[in-house]
Amino acid sequence: MDEERGADAARWTATNLVGVPASLLAGTAFNAAPQPLHVAGVREAHAGLFERLARCDGLAEARKLFARHMSDSFALTPLPVLQEVTADPPHRWRPSYLKLLQGWGLDSNGGAGAVLKGWAQSRFGVIPVFHKVALGRFPSPAWVAYLEEKAANRYEGNYVFHQLDLLFEFCQWALARHGLLGAGPRVTLWRGSNRCEEQIVAGSLRQRHCTVRLNSLVSFSTTREQAGCFGDWLLRAEVPLTKLLLVPGLLDTNSLRGEAEVLAIGGLYEVEASYA
């Protein structure tokens, strides 16, 4: 890495597990012509799950099957018999994808957010650019604080990255099978922000059309009205379905549902900006 690239972490890309170069996946060209994305080996390792999903009568049945498979595969539900043998506390904290999503909903710059942003970097090669503060030059105190929080908090462990891999694959399966956000290949989503100037890499808010660099994992809303709750500037983007980790109605849970929130892999996006 040359000195210039080392000073600007936003320009990095990394290796990934989806078979598309991160420099392409994180750019606007991919958004304009998206291609399918799959985390290597996940569907093969859980082939039985996807065979059973294909036989489900509808999304409600698929949700229950997925939740049961996650619970059984990652021991997310305490087993009383094992507790008696191991003397584990009955409510011992066990990291799970649901707790990560709940933590993100409360504060995307907290411990859950650090882990989720790290997962997006690990699997898709998209470098995080913000966690509490801008993650610019590396090394820096901001980067050290982010990396420490990502590696040393209660959301780590229990193969939580593998849980997120399977959540991503289930989301992609449900989008294709049940058309949760339409026929694709992209969906119009909205993002409210008060920090747009920091994210712009081309164009300007005054011109209304600009290119912004978003975090490795980022929240969108499905409606302009909902997005307006999160900032004075509204960014309208065409987001590839293949970049989505979570959409409303995917899980049988209230996590993030109140804001009609969508979680997507970030990078560069061309957006239309308007003032709320």
In short:
The chain is α+β, with helices and mostly antiparallel strands and 276 residues long.
Radius of gyration: 19 Å
Count of domain modules: 1
- So what's the overall shape? globular
Strand coverage percent = 15-25%
Q: For the terminal residues, how far apart are their CA atoms?
A: 41 Å
Main structural class = alpha+beta
Low-pLDDT windows of residues:
1-6, 81-91
Count of helical stretches: 13
Q: Summarize the helix and strand pattern as letters.
A: HHHHHHHHHEEHHEHEEHEEE
Helix content: 40-55%
The strand count comes to 8
Mean pLDDT: 87
Question: Sheet with the most strands?
Answer: 6 strands, antiparallel
Top keywords for this entry?
alpha+beta, six-stranded antiparallel sheet, 40% helix, disordered N terminus
Fold and architecture overview:
- By secondary structure, the chain is α+β, with helices and mostly antiparallel strands.
- The protein has one domain.
- The chain is built from 13 helices and eight strands.
- The strands form two sheets. Strands 3, 4, 5, 6, 7 and 8 form a six-stranded antiparallel beta sheet that branches.
- Helix 6 runs antiparallel to helix 11, helix 8 packs across helix 9 and helix 9 crosses helix 10.
- The N terminus is likely disordered.
What are the SSEs and their pairings?
Layout: H1 3-7, H2 22-25, H3 28-32, H4 42-45, H5 47-54, H6 59-74, H7 80-86, H8 97-106, H9 111-124, E1 130-131, E2 133-134, H10 141-151, H11 160-178, E3 186-193, H12 196-199, E4 200-203, E5 209-221, H13 224-227, E6 233-240, E7 244-246, E8 261-275
Antiparallel strand pairs: 1-2, 3-6, 4-5, 5-8, 6-8, 7-8
